[in-house]
Amino acid sequence: MSRPKLTHINRIELAILLKEGLSIRQIARAIGVHHSTICRELARNKTANRVGYHAGQAHRWTVMRRARANQAFRKLPSDQKLVGVIVEKLEAIWSPQQIAGWLKSTGRQARVCAQTIYDWIYTFRPDLKPYLHCRKGQYRRTRAARLRQEGRAKERAKRRIDQRPKCILKRKRYGHWEGDTVVGAGQSGYIATFVERKSGYLLAYKLAGPTAEAFTGAGRICFASVPAKYRRTLTLDNGWEMSDYEQLERLTSLQVYFAYPYHSWERGTNENTNGLLRYFFPKKTSFADITQEQIDRAVQLINTRPRKRLGYRTPEQVVTSRWCDLD
Questions:
Q1: Residue 144: pLDDT above 60?
Q2: Angle between the 80-91 and 96-105 helix axes, to the nearest 10 degrees?
Q3: Terminus of the chain with fewer CB atoms < 10 Å: N or C?
């Protein structure tokens, strides 16, 4: 994804807002860019005036930098000596990154960056592409970039809570659940929690680690004891451990929805029940030595507490006496 470029008008706005004493984040919101864009702009174009920035000077410097970058790309085909060095290193199985780093570290006058070498190969010397380790496209994609792209695709594919049937909000039917993880102090351990919205019945299982595989396995174990007709939907948080939700759906027959990030109130039943669990395992508690037996004991005590909205019956009483009779 390309970074947003500030225009000359944006730079004038930036200079004015700096003089008014606004913070970087306030300026970014006012201009409509990420705050890191403002940070990079100020770092590249620092001046000696009172606010440390001058819009006109910053714009001139930016134009000059772009001109130099374009010139570097154009000069490479005409610099046969430099071309010869690059070809020699490519044939020796050096990557463009290694070539660019070596040119800089040896103090050579002729230098180019790795991206310039890639662009030159794909534009002027396609015959050299077999020497590149990655030949699938003009631009290399790192593993991190691939993971980010896959993550964005999965985010777009998620069913959001506003796609969930509206009747679920009324708590008229059993079988609609909410899920999350409770984290120990210093990330010393994790507990997966699942709460049924109508009854408030809690299921919980200690995770082997903060992984999608562990969370999915916990869901499979917990819901194995729940009748199929009461496994309708599951609304989750957005933690990384919940990313394998398709597998969880296949294993449990639940249709998974996701709350929006930082909208914990959209899973209020789960959040409140996690608060009850925190009574037994406070936030400063290490989960390293907590056993599943201790968790089961805490869950039993929570499920046998009378609830006003249940007519002072307990979630366990509702589950055992009504699940077989009500739909």
A1: no
A2: 120
A3: N
